[in-house]
Amino acid sequence: GENVEQHPSTLSVQEGDSAVIKCTYSDSASNYFPWYKQELGKGPQLIIDIRSNVGEKKDQRIAVTLNKTAKHFSLHITETQPEDSAVYFCAASIGGGSYIPTFGRGTSLIVHP
Amino acid sequence: ETGVTQTPRHLVMGMTNKKSLKCEQHLGHNAMYWYKQSAKKPLELMFVYSLEERVENNSVPSRFSPECPNSSHLFLHLHTLQPEDSALYLCASSRDSQTTEAFFGQGTRLTVV
User: Fold this and answer.
1) From CA B73, how far away is CA B23, in angstroms rounded?
2) Which of A94, A113, B14, B35 is deepest in the core (most CB within 10 A)?
3) Reported confidence tier of residue A99, pLDDT bands at 50, 70, 90
4) 3-state class of B65 per DSSP?
């Protein structure tokens, strides 16, 4: 089955800096890659996603890149703010059939004011 | 608010108890999911229901018993649990099992003593 590795497990940055979280996947058939943000006491919430026919996608301060050849994808957050502090999960799935994502272990992002 | 509500938010139970977790969504979704979230581990998919029929059961011990009486409600019945079952149990829903975006509830923090 699919295996998703996520790094780093913890990331500490100063407000205004950029943050990058990286994930790799094992199944070349995976073609949908969502990112979820989980704030303290809440469930995960989808923040951005990318499909395998696209190399990069941006939404304001967040962007995701995908390298299908290397089977890795990354989340980039620019101009970080304290409210960006949360646990971020990447996931991979084989869409088109039953969408069941495989999640990474999560990255705890801490943004210091 | 994601539109997915879980109760209770916190639950402490003994190993001989029987309890149930409840999940409710009024988003008109047809697929519902139970996930287990343990510290430092990826989200683990437990069960998937599509149109009230179970379509996925990831080798979950029989001490966890799901029930989906209608497309808006999902239960997880618990009995004779072990301390290692202590975790955050998350419910999610999506339009259908082939839809990419899942909406998560806030979770039930379960402690088995």
Assistant:
1) 6
2) B35
3) low
4) strand
